[in-house]
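Example record used in the benchmark description.
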Amino acid sequence: MAEREKNITLDEFKYLIDSRNLSEKDKEAEREVLLKAREARFKSRSEYDRKVAKLMQLKYQMEEYVKNPECSSGPNFSRFLSIYVDTLYKKRKDFASDLSIDPVLLSHVLNNHRSPQETFIHRLILHSELSYKSVCDFRRDLWPRVFYQDKVCQFLTAQDQVRESEMKYITGRDIEPESSPEEQ
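Model output (structure tokens):
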């Protein structure tokens, strides 16, 4: 195998273009054509197909977050909830109405001004199960897992910041090793 073929980077395969024999200008032109074709195909989908694709993507993102949480990316529960609501509804107040909650409460939860109450999460689970019924199986523990993983990440992030200021209140002692019979 030639040295040149060994050094092909994954970046060249990112857009599914065989660019081994293309110049940089040709590679860029091929990328543009491919992106335009993908965009045109996505726009030609029906509204239902777009919603299904977004809901599937959201479900996979949530499952990935639960498996491998990334605490540095900020609050994910509200971000996932925003995507869910905006995918299904043109107006957020319609979603609030379907859950029988106040639109102001929904706004507070979406903007991280308030934590959702247990009843909110229960209703969200039931709503999600109904929404995903024709799309795919939706685990009922997914929203609570995302919510509590978010709380764990918030706590750990705050722990790093608060640690120094709280140490002055701790009066514990180090555990001293016992002397072994050989040392006596």
